[in-house]
Write a structure and sequence with these properties.
Layout: H1 2-26, H2 39-60, H3 63-91, H4 99-120, E1 122-131, E2 138-143, H5 154-165, E3 171-174, H6 185-196, E4 204-206, H7 218-221, H8 225-234, E5 237-239, E6 243-247, E7 251-255, H9 260-263, H10 272-276, E8 284-288, H11 295-300, E9 305-308, H12 322-325, E10 334-338, E11 341-345, E12 362-371
Parallel strand pairs: 1-12, 2-3, 3-4, 4-5, 7-8, 8-9, 9-11
Antiparallel strand pairs: 2-12, 6-7, 10-11
Length: 372
C-alpha cells in the first residue's frame, strides 16, 4: 500500500509540474506573447489554456488519461526545447519562430495517436516450446487483461474470441483481469457467454487477477467476484484457485490464486512447492499466475511453463521497466528461461483505464508446445 501511495504522490506532483511547464512553453507562442502584457500574465494565460485542455481531456476520456497526455506533451516538449537549444548554440543563430514548440506539439500528438492505435488493435504473438515430457503437440491460446470497458465492451471482446477461435487452439487460458470495477454487469455476462461458445479440445480455463474481484465492492459495479465465478462456470469455464487439473493424462494446469490474495489478506494462497509436491513430475507442468512475481519459487518447484499478464507489457514508454526496478514484477514482457522453467508474460488484449500503449501493443498469444 505504501508503494502505491508513493507512486500516486509522484504522479500527482509530476502532473502539476508538467502543467506548469507546458503553460510556460505555450506562453512563448505569438498568440499569447504580446509585448504589452507583463511576463507573469503571459505565463498565467498559458497555464490557464493548458489547464482548460487538461480538463477537456479528463472529461472526454478520464483523469488518468489526461495525466498521461500531459506527461507526454511535457516530456517531448522538454526534449524538443533541448534539441533546438543545442542547434541554435551550435549554429550561433536565433530562430525567428518557436519551432521547438511546433515540433513538440506535432510529435506529442503523433506519439499519442500511435499509442491509441497500439492499444485499440490486437495482434497475435506466437511462441514455440519443446519438451521431452510431451508426446503430442499442444496448442494453447492465452490472453490476459481484457479489462472490459477500456478499449472494447462485450461485442468487441466477442470479435477477439472469434479471431482466437480461427486459430483452432486445443485449450484457451485466461490469465486474469478479465473484468475490473468499470466493467458493466451486462458486458461481463455477455463475455462469459461468448467464452462458453469457444470450441476447444480441452476447454477454457480462468484464474483471477487483482482486478477481477473488484476493489470497490459489489455495490459499485453490481456483481461480486463470486458472481463472476458463477457466470463463468455456468458457461463451462473452469475456474482454478490454487487448484490443479490433469489434462488428457498428458499435462497439468496449475491455476494460482492471485498474489493480491496474500497482500490484501483475502485468505492467502498456497505455496508453489505445496501445489506441485503431489504431482507426477514426468508430466508437463503449466502454471497460470496472473502476476509475474514468484519466479524464484517457481524455478525451485521445477515447473515447466509459467503464464502471466498484469504488467500490460510495460504500457508506457519510457516507464516500461518501472515495475521491475521497484521489485513489483520479475519480468515485464515476453519470454525468459530460468533453469528448467520457461516464463511468458503477455501485454494483454487491453488494459486498465489507460487508453494508450506507447511502450508495447495489445496482443493475445498462441503457444505451441512440441515434443522434443
Amino acid at each position: 500500500m505504501t508503494m502505491w501511495l508513493v507512486i500516486m504522490l509522484v504522479t500527482l506532483v509530476t502532473s502539476a509540474v508538467s502543467l506548469i511547464y507546458l503553460g510556460g512553453r505555450i506562453s512563448i507562442f505569438s498568440f499569447i506573447n504580446n509585448a504589452d502584457i507583463k511576463p507573469w500574465r503571459k505565463r498565467l494565460r498559458g497555464f490557464l489554456l493548458v489547464l482548460f485542455i487538461f480538463v477537456v481531456i479528463a472529461k472526454l476520456l478520464n483523469f488518468v488519461n489526461a495525466i498521461v497526455c500531459a506527461f507526454y506533451f511535457a516530456l517531448i516538449w522538454l526534449i524538443c526545447d533541448g534539441i533546438f537549444a543545442i542547434i541554435a548554440k551550435a549554429l550561433k543563430i536565433k530562430f525567428k519562430h518557436y519551432y521547438a514548440g511546433i515540433w513538440a506539439i506535432g510529435l506529442s500528438l503523433a506519439a499519442l495517436a500511435c499509442g491509441w492505435y497500439l492499444n485499440h488493435n490486437v495482434w497475435q504473438t506466437d511462441y514455440t516450446f519443446y519438451s521431452s515430457k510431451i508426446k503430442q503437440p499442444i496448442k494453447i491460446a492465452m490472453f490476459a487483461d481484457s479489462h472490459m470497458g477500456t478499449t472494447f465492451k462485450a461485442d468487441g471482446f466477442a470479435e477477439h474470441m472469434t479471431t482466437i477461435q480461427e486459430q483452432n487452439p486445443d485449450i484457451l487460458i485466461i490469465a486474469g483481469d478479465f473484468v475490473d470495477d468499470d466493467t458493466k454487469k451486462e458486458d461481463m455476462i455477455a463475455a462469459c457467454k461468448r467464452l462458453g461458445e469457444m470450441q476447444t479440445k480441452y476447454g477454457v480455463y480462468f484464474v483471477f487477477g487483482n482486478h477481477d474481484e473488484g476493489y470497490y465492492g459489489r455495490e459499485y459495479r453490481g456483481y461480486s467476484g463470486l458472481d463472476l465465478v458463477n457466470e463463468l462456470r455456468k458457461n463451462n469455464v473452469i475456474v482454478l484457485e490454487d487448484e490443479v487439473k490433469l489434462i488428457d493424462e498428458s499435462f497439468y494446469l496449475i491455476g494460482r490464486k492471485d498474489a493480491s490474495a496474500d497482500k490484501e489478506h483475502r485468505g492467502g494462497r498456497l505455496k508453489m512447492a505445496d501445489l506441485v509436491r503431489p504431482l507426477n513430475k514426468d508430466k508437463y507442468l503449466i502454471v497460470i499466475d496472473h502476476q509475474p512475481n514468484d519466479y524464484a519459487n517457481q524455478v525451485e518447484a521445477k515447473v515447466d511453463l509459467v503464464l502471466s499478464g498484469h504488467t500490460h507489457g510495460g504500457q508506457l514508454f519510457p516507464l516500461n521497466q518501472v515495475g521491475k526496478w521497484i521489485g513489483a514484477n520479475d519480468r515485464i514482457y515476453g519470454h525468459e528461461k530460468r533453469n528448467l522453467t520457461d516464463f511468458l508474460v503477455t501485454s494483454g488484449i487491453s488494459d486498465w483505464t489507460i487508453k494508450f500503449k506507447t511502450g508495447t501493443k495489445s496482443e493475445f498469444v498462441m503457444i505451441n508446445i512440441e515434443p522434443k
